[in-house]
Design goal:
This protein is mostly helical. The chain is built from five helices and two strands. The termini are far apart.
Length: about 100
Amino acid sequence: MTNWGHTIRDLMKKRGITQRDLEAVSGVSRSTIKRCLNGKSKPRIEVLEKLLPVFGYSISMGMTHEPYPLPPKQKISYAGPVSTQRKLIKAAGCDRRD
């Protein structure tokens, strides 16, 4: 079974996304994100359904409980500060400057 706290923390680290960024984009409170990342609580399915799309993943409730990539048209958008938008766009691998 997946340790979602570790999975989400790894995705955040790889993409340079902070807890504040994740809160702003997903709509999940920072306190809930912190509890999940620290292993103090297991995230509910509803929370995972909000967090994983930030990284381009969806939850698969098959036998593996592993996340799987979303089709490109289901990527989420965020109308926040420009610097945060650019960071998230780059983290998602959609930066056209490269």
